Amino acid sequence: MERIAFTRRPVPIPADYRPLYRIGQLLLILKLNCRSSTGSLLKLHLFHWALKNERNRNVLREIVANGRSSSLVIWGFDPALNRALHFALSEEVCQLHDGKYTLTTKGDRLAAAFLEQEVYQTEKAFLREIGKNVSEKAITSFTQTWIKPNAEN
């Protein structure tokens, strides 16, 4: 009987699982969608969730257009985004101040470079379309719908 041998080969990691890819998305979100290039963790997760697929993008478009969604909106919190934030902080492309993330000068230059290059085309088009029309106050309002008040309290 002939033996079969397998050779282990490196497997490429899909782009959306690479920390640098997510850091680029974060920088673009901070640059294009956050006032003074400063956003809360909730806002970053909302936009990151919206960038995942067209259905999520349409929900965010509806929120911007109508001030609300026709359905309950609960977006996911991706641990990979938190990991990318840690890398971004360690690389000093953003900083954490009073619970909000802000682009540093280095991060602003990198975001500007991403805007000039032919990368993140789908993301940039969507983020530019939404602009700075989602406020921190609106995000807080959306998250309040997740919590059902207890009548006994």
Question: How are the SSEs ordered, and which strands pair?
Answer:
Layout: H1 19-33, E1 38-40, H2 41-51, H3 54-66, H4 79-90, E2 94-97, E3 100-103, H5 105-116, H6 121-130, H7 136-144
Helix pairs in contact: 1-4, 1-5, 1-6, 2-3
Report on this model:
The protein is built from seven helices and three strands, in the order αβαααββααα. The chain is mainly α and 153 residues long. Strands 1-3-2 form a three-stranded antiparallel beta sheet. It is globular. The model has no long low-confidence stretch (mean pLDDT 87).
State the main characteristics.
three-stranded antiparallel beta sheet; 7% strand; 3 strands; 153 residues; mainly alpha
Biggest sheet overview? 3 strands, antiparallel
Strand content: 5-15%
Oligomerization: single chain
Which sequence of SSEs, written as H and E, runs from N to C?
Answer: HEHHHEEHHH
Number of helices: 7
Mean pLDDT, nearest integer?
87
Class inferred from helices and paired strands: mainly alpha
- Helix % is 40-55%
Number of domains: 1
* CA-atom Rg in angstroms: 19 Å
Question: Strands of the biggest beta sheet: in what spatial order?
Answer: 1-3-2
Compact summary:
This protein is mainly alpha-helical and 153 residues long. Helix content is 54%, strand content 7%.
